[in-house]
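This section describes the prediction task in plain terms. A model, or a person checking by hand, is given the sequence of a single protein chain and must write out its three-dimensional structure as a string of tokens. No templates, partner chains or ligands are provided. The sample shown here is typical of the held-out split.
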Amino acid sequence: MANHTTNTESTPAPAASPTLAAMLRVGVIGLGNMGGPMAGHMVAAGLDVHVNARRPEAMSALVDQGATAHPTPADVARNADVVVFVVPDLPDVEAILEGPDGLLAGVTGPLVIVVSSTVSPEGVRLLGDRLAAHTSGLVHVVDAPVSGGARGAIAGTLAIMVGGSDADVSRAWPALEACGNPSHLGALGAGQVAKACNQMIVASTVVALSEASIVARRAGLDVQALFDLLGTGLAGSQVMEQKKDSLIAREHPSSGPARFMVKDLNFATAEARRGGTATPQLDVLSELFTGLTEAGLGDQDVSVAQTYIENMHRP
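The expected answer:
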């Protein structure tokens, strides 16, 4: 197995020249709540954008904006220098890569694959090694998971955590920069380690907000007034700002299924064990999100932790 290291300092990617950026052909596969708006921002930035999705209607609005739709991932690869994947996990990436119409079947020259999904850090490292060997060095992998939710994707303000070689990241940079605020954190896998840390913080904050809302409501407090007040102090956060309306209304329509948090926290646990790090809070969070998923709440937003906790009985 190749030896991989991760920088501890954030470093900017080497800037691509304006000429190269204007010539860059970018594919986007996965046009849901996150990938659709991201592709739209790439089109607006003047990039030559090529898209593929299982649902033709997901491509139509982007075609109206100036993107080119293709019937298969292989066709995207034939027309792209960089392909960004915004799908749930590595098995979904693998399924799109393989087969006669898969992306790898369309590779005819150097290609950078950007995995913007939240996946296993070790899994994306192994994917990079495998694809480089399988394609005789033509295909390189960058990991660039994002944070900010659907709201950040629409606004073009995503925090983008990037791992990969300087050359590969530089090639993908114009596409990433169009979607928000990328930061190159180290070698391949570094972005996924950062996203695992992000998910630990998001999960813990959502659970803390959920518990606080229940305690306050049962004590007779106005939860909206409480959150408005807390938002001006140290307890304030973007998580509170994005989730407080759901917690106040006790309704949790999904902008991203809570069940995905189970895999994300499992990735964090694996990376913590790899580094010999104790994770007392992470262990509790993993148990809680596994429990709410098993209780049938996993398709709702992560703020559904509130419902799960409300229905728990104190021993």
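For orientation: Strands lie at 25-29, 48-52, 68-69, 82-85, 111-115, 139-143, 146-147, 158-163, 180-186.
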